[in-house]
Records
---
Amino acid sequence: MKNVRRFMSIVFSLILIFVMSACSNSDSSNKTSLSVAEVTRSVFYAPQYVAIEKGFFEEEGLEIDLKTTWGGDKTMTTLVSDGADIALVGSETSIYVHARGANDPIINFAQLTQKDGTFLVSKEPKPNFKWEDLRGSKFLGQRKGGMPQMVGEYVLKQKGIDPQSDLELSQNVDFANIPNAFQTGDYEYVQLFEPTASVFEKEGNGHVIASFGEASGKVPYTVFMAKQSFLEDNKETTEKFTRAIYKAQQWVEKTDATEVAEVISPYFEDTDVDIIASSVERYKSAGAFATDPILDEEEWNNLKAIMDEAGELPEDVDHGTLVNTQIAEKIISE
């Protein structure tokens, strides 16, 4: 609960100094401009970049102004203060805002990723790895209170491992410094996102041995969301946005990872295409990319169970309160 309060404190503090104008308008060519704030830049969000690069948004008459806002608190601040029309961020943030009594609720309307995006990486090869091998090991985890950490600990508990007593667990390293800390420290295991995990393998600094996403099951890990008022006032535009995302999800599902990597490579200029392809393939194999934008009730309940297990669920919020599936269902039925 401390992390919930800290999250909301940061959000509302940032709102006080955040001065931006809403960006929903039409340009001279009759395209509707939408401002989208993504929580980070990640291969995990490949369908979003595909929708831009393959022209799926353009086909719908939309022009996307994509900005990376680096963190759940900043992303939610941007959305709440009208600095963006739509945010791509973890669903847990909508629950945190709701718990503080938001007058204009943040509604999840199109899911992009349906599983955790982190992988278990070991410093040494583990060809016959079993989860119980982690007992007594030095484990470098993710930041406490974040979804990667909550999912990671949830998986370990499901495997019969108490993260606090069965591991030498470290959670005091900033997100950006975790890869270097693992490489230079005496940690035996680490929880990493792509493409860092693939880079480690290529350079011989680590070995991917398990997927937290596969182990945890489906969860609304990253979802497009907007204020309820925006959805009500921009119904047609939201449908067009969701239709473009659905086209991209279907294209990624049916397309070879190498081709996907080539399409999204402009968003990762400092990463080799073969590494991007490896990352895409790993996410496809884990079933991490949602193949349609519907956030169903089972996934929502799984999210709440993970948050509750971590002591971070501020209140029990029904699926229908913060999730709109009608938009996605209409698009899929077309």
---
Amino acid sequence: MIWLLCIGAAAARGEVRVQDYQDRLVSLPKPAARIVALAPHVVENLYAAGAGDKIVGVVEYSDFPAAARHKARVGGHSAVSLEAIVALAPDLVIAWAAGTSSALVQRLLDLGITVYLDDPRRLADVARSLRDFGTLAGTASVSEPRARNYLRQLDTLRTQFVDKKPVTVLYQVWHEPLQTLNGKHIITDVIELCGGRNVFDDAVSLAPKISLEAVFQRNPDVIIASGMGTARPAWLDHWRRWPELRAVRNNHLYVVPADNIQRHTLRILSGARQMCAHLAAVRSAERR
């Protein structure tokens, strides 16, 4: 009861409060008016939450929607400038826990800058991020219906593939070095949504480098690549050198454009539908 009274008092004063992905209480005396976003997917989700006009700084590759390309840059994935962030006088920084240096986050906190740590690992987390961003920016009237619509579409997809025959999947991020994603990455949730099983779900690191021998040992039914941009990466067809692999022998080498599946945004539903269609093609071929 006391907790409810505190929340009510905070709302009356215009305060906003949410728990971030590391269970930290993030609070502001009023909705954020100047936000720095330290990952492209955070930028995209802020726009989806109705808070695009509150963004004052972004990182490299923040290119969706088009308006994001005109925001001030504060660095890239591996080198974010603390000085550039401070110069923008943000009242909120939204960082990606899996992709932002913990030392940078601590420096921001030491300077008294409020930081929200975003770290979506499951498909439902996209809706959570939208809702949190809407609360922090005071745009819940936009973020809430979009989050609900996203979850409705997600539930519809889930019911379509819940009882399908499992398909083993190698999701290939890159070719040199050969790289995939483990079971803690959101793309594994996409694979499982479609009735698939990530053959490297037990890998220790989030984006492990793997050997050709390990792929042969696990012998996936299908290889799905992302690469860069929307074009089919030429290196996907390098697998044809090894027809003894089940995926190669049956010509199950497919592509899902990276931006549709590797960004933790509303667009991941488009990538999920493409993933599900590829796994359905594998099942259909097995029935012939």
---
Amino acid sequence: MRNLKSAAIALAALALSVAPFAAAKAQDFPSRNVTMIVPFAAGGPTDTVARLIAESMSRSLGQQVVVENVGGAGGTRGAGQVAKAAPDGYTILLHHIGQATSATLYRKLPYNVLTDFEEVGLVTDVPMTMIGKSTLEPKDAAALIAYVKEKKDGVIYGNAGVGSASHLCGMLFMSAIGTPMTTVPYQGTGPAMNDLVGGQIDLMCDQTTNTTGQIKAGKVKAYGVTTPNRLKSLPDIPTFKEGALPGFEIAVWHGLYAPKGTPKVTIDKLNAALLTALQDPKVIARFADLGTEPVALERATPEVHEKFLAAEVAKWKPVIEQAGVFAD
């Protein structure tokens, strides 16, 4: 008993001695490079957002924020890596709406979306566009809907993989028109877009950060945007409300995360750098080129992000369950 008591006292003393050291380390953050994990392949829309934010945050933090692409499993591989990383702020995650949908979509998710991360702040809401190969017959959204209903699984819809934004958009579109298409999942947005431009697939719905350039270059045919109002960057493309499909609206938000247990002082420093990035004229201008803009600063706080994520998990749960689309 005496030995157990002595051991307990020793452990308590050790904890007390380590606490000031940990606090000091957090105060010194960052003293080396920070790794920003993007859970998708390089060159995709989320990667584009991450690199713009990382460049600005590097200047604010005084250390390089290095983007590392850890793709696979619909974004869950990269997210899982961050969930298991040391909670010191040196490994962070830039993820999109898939952070919320994965909670229902994956039966064996190796982490808890709501309890294994510290939210740093929301970054941007990216509209989406439904695009087709340049030779696709329908001329507008109403004609496209009629065409899909007629051809059904004769229409080939490509996406960036299970759990990707393009997968979610396609799932909602098929649900909204009550008609299935043949779905081809790719290993990332880049390969899917290449096949769409090349005419191997018929349709794709993806973020404006990835589609705006292709639309303006005339390499694909745009059928509609998934926002209530037309976009400043693509003013000639109608909304789906105009195109006979009211209520078909989806925006792909992006958020920044750190592992659970990351000290508040570290989260605050990361958030301050994020807020600076969202006001950076270069970031704002580049986002505008891509058809999006930073979120309002009041939405970019850890507290708002935490509540928003929980609401998004609850919002998408019945949609995914009704569709019956799950992944292991």
---
Amino acid sequence: MKACVVLGHDYRFTAQDEVMVWSCARECGAGGSKRYATAADARRYAEAFDRKDTEDLGRGAPLLGMWPLRVWRALTRSDRSGS
């Protein structure tokens, strides 16, 4: 799929018993699996890998290069605390 070539794969992770399984959300066929000692371990790793970092967007960004993003984060943070 062209999107995967340009943007990279968008892997989603799930756990099925002791096996963690991942596949590309764009349905290009990429994926794999790994077996862990316990189902709890597989579930823990799948949850950790499956999270998206959109909430941390802009945190720790370069000061000048990402200035608009830092300003936007500051404004949205003050909107949430004021309501």
